[in-house]
Amino acid sequence: MILVGQYDSPVTRRVAIALHHYGMEFTRDTRSVLSQAGDVAQISPLTRIPALVLPGGEVLIDSAAILDHLDELAGPRALIPASGPERRRVLQFTALAQGTFEKALAVIYERHFHPPAHHSAPWLARCMSQTRAGLAHLAARLSAPYACGADLTHADVMLTTLIWYLTERLPEVVDTTAHAPLIALAARCETLPAFRAAALSAFETMPKA
Ligand SMILES: N[C@@H](CCC(=O)N[C@@H](CS)C(=O)NCC(=O)O)C(=O)O
Q1: Measured between alpha carbons, how far is 68 from 169 in angstroms, rounded to an integer?
Q2: CB neighbours of 52 closer than 8 A, spacing ≥ 6?
Q3: Which atom of ligand 1 is nearest to the CA of 48?
């Protein structure tokens, strides 16, 4: 399998962490979705990352849909309960963390693609407010020792890659007091082998506009 995307994309890194956790072999295509968009478009139909190229050449897109396939391969080792309220809880926590990332990404892209004079102040204010709301709800829903209870799940993985992203790209939304439990869980997860195996390399950073 080939994982397309760089690890400063939280949704790409969460796929990589799952691949490592499951012990599934993969290689990487680390061409940049921004500075090498034409190359990525040859593989990924929406010119977005992550994409996962399967051994037969089939291309999967969207982190949740990619993980759905990997979870099926992983069987009982999947990072999500098989059914019921426990599964819904993990899916909803993960969706909240992923949605929080997407609102932060909208802020980052507005600032990246538009010169300051063309920034939409109402749009930025809306996205910042949604990002902060997402973090507040994540903090309120957080369980222990992991995000959704006793076991490590996709919720922990998405939360951890989100916290890295916000700390690096949008630190003004991270409140080290209110979000301390989220930050502490992310720090603990970063020490686990699968997370360390998917550590960022120096080249994995957003190009300047
Ligand atoms: N829902 C998608 C989101 C993918 C996404 O937004 N990826 C970003 C990088 S983190 C991207 O490819 N951006 C380039 C673009 O949208 O043009 C997923 O979970 O895979």
Answers
A1: 28
A2: 1, 2, 3, 4, 15, 26, 59, 60, 61, 66, 69
A3: 12
**Which protein residue's CA is at the shortest distance from atom 2 of ligand 1?**
62
Domain shared by 71 and 124, yes or no: no
* Same-domain pairing of 88 and 184: yes
- How many domains are contained in the chain? 2
- For residue 31, the CA-to-ligand 1 centroid distance in Å is 14
Regarding whether 97 and 187 lie in a shared domain, the answer is yes
Cβ(11) to ligand 1 under 6 A? yes
> pLDDT tens for residues 78-97?
999 999 999 999 999 999 99
Report field, pTM of the whole predicted structure over 0.90: yes
Cα of 128 to ligand 1 centre, how many Å? 18
